[in-house]
Amino acid sequence: MFGLVDAVSFYARAEKVFDPSIRHKPVVVLTNNDGCICAVCPIARKLGVPKFVPYFKVKSFLAKHGVVVRSSNYELYADLSERMMNVIARYSDNHYVYSIDESFLHFKNFSCVANWHEYGHVIRKAVWRETRLPVGVGFGETLTLAKAANHASKKLSGFDGVAVIDDQASRKEILSRMSLTDVWGIGNKLGKRLSILGLNNGWDLANQSPKTMRGQFGVVVERTVNELNGMPCLKWDEIGQDKQEIFSTRSFGQRVTDDHALKAALSSHASIVAAKVRRQGSLIKRLVIFASSSPHDDNYYKKSVIYEFPIATDNTLKLAGAISYVFDSIYKLGVSFYRCGVGGVELENSQFQQQDMFTLSVNNPPLMKCYDQINHRYGRGAVEVAIAEKNEKWAMRRNFLSPRSTSNWSEIPKINC
Amino acid sequence: MKVIPVYIEAGISGFESPAAEYRELNLSLEELLLQHPNATFFGLANGRSMEGRGIFNGDVLVVDRVEHINNGAVIVANFNGCFVCKIIDTDNALLLSASDEHKPIKITASDDFQIEGVVNVSFRLHKKLPVLLSCLG
Predict the structure, then answer these.
(1) What is the pLDDT along chain A (417 residues), one digit of tens a residue?
(2) What is the pTM of this model?
């Protein structure tokens, strides 16, 4: 049996954990730089607040309805996520943290669980009690069915936060009430193409011939159909596959025109990418480096350069060197830059690196390990390549930030006595 | 003055500490004070109504969400949108203070009330730390 536990509108609910004054109020959370709405709590959803719209477009609507607006408090979310995952991990022998707010569980030889529905509620209650975060729990014979059951537990009427797909009847009931794009792995494009064939919901998809689906849509859809029929195809370790590309990119809090500031921003992105790459044990062969003005500007400017390393690397210093090397071809005087970023686009596994007889490795694992450990211990940016100095101009804008209640002593909640 | 460095000869390596084998991990305050680290948060006491239970203004409260709530326990609760620290009287649905100057508060159905956790540990910094004072603001 597989399970999927995930938090209900995690960011918005996390905001309520240490602020009891907003527990019964509509709350929305904004993305980086307070750009768009990225999370909407159930109360705000009932008011009709849409997700993924620019904040400025709905600002007056939110004010009129007394909606509480918050910037993304990543420090708080990271801590609450870790706590939530710790609780969930206690309930299975194998779990995989799929994202900040969802975790897959694998139950082998769990015959002690007689009633999965009850077991789901045990998990829900424990997470609520220890973290004050509401979660939905779904169980199914495959990962895709667990994902579907999880969807049902939160979105379909008649479910109280837990749903189980363990026989034909429950499978049919849930899948026939799910739209195609609610099925894991079916995106908008694919959903449209499938609906042209006359399919309306998950159950219709489950009843297609896997072979035919493979012929028309490829092996991924074939596997989805099999999974929907209770035949496990996705392997446990495949869902946690290493990322093929790693990006760090962001729009500036304020426009940047100065070459030094742009270089500093790019170098910081490079250093974030390098740290992420090291965490998954990869090396970067090709690095893409780009900067642009806003597409809404009159003379839209965008420049993107690919730098290829002679030998794949995870060395922050080499990445910073690459930025310096290509910088002059990216920067243009007079452009007010709105966005920039860096991405590792061709990654290699550091375990199977092909060595070159004539080139010495540029990697420096002991230095990078030390670098990561210092930053882990004292916070990101404690040590940094000199060029990536922090610059307020491009630091994230977070005007509606709540206290970092669990990670900063000067921001712990006040309790009235 | 010229100094001629004379290096200590190898061979004098001292004696191994007889205590080396008995070395343990250092004492950890977390281990002592936090029963359920995953379900614990910290808050700062604001006010004087709990002085009778040894909780003074500016003390740090260790709030445990897992600990069982007994009648008479010191708890932290959400009371109408505010975190409060009081003694819970479960028999009479009262929030009691540990001070004569504060009357018991009756919890009624119209109140927004949830218990957040139990305070089994609180601690005081006898030399105030600026980092903590700033939250009382």
Answers:
(1) 999 999 989 999 999 999 999 999 999 999 877 888 999 999 999 999 988 888 989 999 999 999 999 999 988 999 999 999 999 999 998 888 888 999 999 998 888 888 999 999 999 999 999 999 999 999 999 999 999 999 999 999 999 999 999 999 999 999 999 999 999 989 888 999 999 999 999 999 999 999 999 999 888 899 999 999 999 988 776 666 667 788 888 888 788 899 998 999 999 899 999 999 998 888 998 999 999 998 888 889 999 998 999 888 999 999 999 999 999 999 999 999 988 999 998 888 877 776 666 766 778 888 888 888 888 888 777 888 888 766 555 567 788 999 999 988 999 999 999
(2) 0.79
Location of structure tokens 């712990």: A412
For A36-77, give the DSSP string: BEEEE-HHHHHTTPPSS-BHHHHHHHHHHTT-EEE---HHHH
Q: Which residues of A395-415 are buried (b: 16+ CB within 10 A; e: fewer)?
A: ebbbebbbbbbbeeeebbbbb
- Asked if B103 is an active-site residue, the reply is no
Instruction: Judge whether A15 and A22 are in contact, CB under 8 Å.
Output: yes
Q: CB B39: neighbour CB atoms within 10 A?
A: 21
Q: Which candidate from A24, A405, A415 shows the least CB-CB separation from B45?
A: A415
Measured between beta carbons, the chain B residues lying within 8 angstroms of A406 are 41-42
Residue B86 bears catalytic tag: yes
Task: Give the Cβ contact number of residue A168 at 10 Å.
Answer: 9
Sign of CA dihedral A136, A142, A148, A153: negative
A302 contact partners, CB below 8 Å, separation of at least 6: A290, A291, A292, A293
Active-site annotation holder among B2, B17, B28, B86: B86
Structure tokens at A260: 């030094």
Burial class (CB in 10 A: 0-12, 13-18, 19+), A372: middle
Asked whether the beta carbons of residue A130 and residue B39 sit closer than 8 angstroms, the reply is yes
Chain A environment of B37 (Cβ under 8 Å): none
> Which residues of A sit within 8 Å Cβ distance of B?
18, 20-24, 83, 86-87, 129-132, 405-406, 409-417
Nearest to B83 among A24, A131, A413 (CB): A413
